[in-house]
Amino acid sequence: DVKAESGKVDVSASDDVKLTTVNGTAAVSGSSAAVGGAVGVDVINSGANAAIFSGASVSSGLDTSVHADAAEHLNNAVAGGTVSGSSAGVTGVLAVAVDNENATASVGGDDAEKVTDLNAAKGSVEVTARHTAEVNNIAGALGIGSSTGVGLGVGTEIVTNQTKAIVGDGTTIT
């Protein structure tokens, strides 16, 4: 049981991830083919979870809030270049960014048998979740050769983010 007779009850969680990577390759040949390749893979698996669990009793004289805030800033750059003075210049690069971030704010749960009681005598009850994402994924390739030049750059993003604000079964708010 939590009691704040003349104040607020704040339950909060935050997660702010910043990830920057740079990968590259270079190949130069004067007498044969020049071949280069580079791969950059960035993966973020994290999140913020704020909760008042099933069966809890919380009372405040003012406001009660449950807030989860998750943010990520993912920067991935992969570049490559080849130069051949007598044959082919071939470069391939792959940039992959994977973002699995969750923000969940919850009061109570799925168990209706365990009553969760929130009482904000002179205020409000807030259950909020926020998620922001910035993903910059860049792939560039250059191939120069006296006979053939090939550059291939591929970039892909996989984003599976979830943002939830939940008031569970069996929760009473007064």
Keywords for this entry:
174 residues; mainly beta; four-stranded parallel beta sheet; 11 strands; 0% helix; 78% strand; rod-shaped
SSE series: EEEEEEEEEEE
The parts where pLDDT drops under 50 for at least 5 residues are: none
Helix content: under 10%
CA radius of gyration is 26 Å
Which structural class is indicated by helix and strand composition?
Answer: mainly beta
**Percentage of residues in DSSP E strands:** over 45%
- Report, as a whole number of angstroms, the end-to-end distance: 16 Å
Order of strands across the widest beta sheet? 1-4-7-11
Q: Number of helix segments? A: 0
Average pLDDT across residues? 90
How many strand elements? Answer: 11
Shape assignment? rod-shaped
Q: How does the major sheet shape up?
A: 4 strands, parallel
Structure description:
The chain has 174 residues and is mainly beta. Helix content is 0%, strand content 78%. It is built from no helices and 11 strands. Strands 1-4-7-11 form a 4-stranded parallel sheet, with no helix packed on it. Strands 3, 6, 9 and 10 form a 4-stranded parallel sheet that branches. The model has no long low-confidence stretch (mean pLDDT 90).
Furnish the topology, listing elements before pairings.
Elements: E1 2-4, E2 9-29, E3 34-52, E4 57-60, E5 64-84, E6 88-107, E7 116-120, E8 125-145, E9 148-159, E10 162-167, E11 171-173
Parallel strand pairs: 1-4, 2-5, 3-6, 4-7, 5-8, 6-9, 6-10, 7-11
